[in-house]
């Protein structure tokens, strides 16, 4: 746990949030308890409202230029999950889970982003001059298709992590999965050009309530300060 005395801020700026307040404790608690469910209870079901609640939390994730270049395709029905399973190399979790969210990253070149900015401009949240500057900057940033694809993967990964933490907060077992053939998933769920299935997030009830968290390498082994 960090202390306020560990953080220094320039005089006159807003201070950091108190890490010992309810919010800080709750966030740290979620990080301490989250784990990837190893065995889902195949009898459990999850309502559409509960899944939409998780997606509502996932879209709070940050994204470059606030492009929100993600989409969530939910394999909810047993049929959809059976369709997904072969593309995920037959992993049982796909059909044992109550739902699997395909977190899709979108290369930031589509008209959808223009529409998003049009709305911001109409609402007065984005002045016209700023809009032009953003259009130019976004065009420059993603003129290389590899950069667009990398950004799609970054945004969708952050959204997936946010979804995992929201699931933990709601008492829903979850497991992120990259063990799938992206081309097969894209074909089976009719993803558009420029859309990449980045992660599957299986959701449901943990069949093993005694499952414990895995070890992590110590901070000293994974960090350096420059
Ligand atoms: C990018 C990524 C891909 C993963 N792919 C799979 C997968 O295909 N199948 C699976 O059962 N678990 C998968 N996992 C779960 C990891 O095995 C798990 O996160 C890791 O062992 C650490 O365990 P923990 O999440 O419980 O702390 C994946 C996790 C990540 C982050």
TrEMBL record:
InterPro entries per record: Nitroreductase (IPR029479), Nitroreductase-like (IPR000415)
Residues covered by region (Disordered): 1-25
Alphabetical UniProt keywords: Oxidoreductase
UniProt GO molecular function: oxidoreductase activity
Occurrences of domain Nitroreductase (ranges): 31-205
Signal sequence bounds: none
Family recorded in the similarity comment: Belongs to the nitroreductase family.
Protein's UniProt name: Nitroreductase family protein
Species for this entry: Fulvimarina endophytica
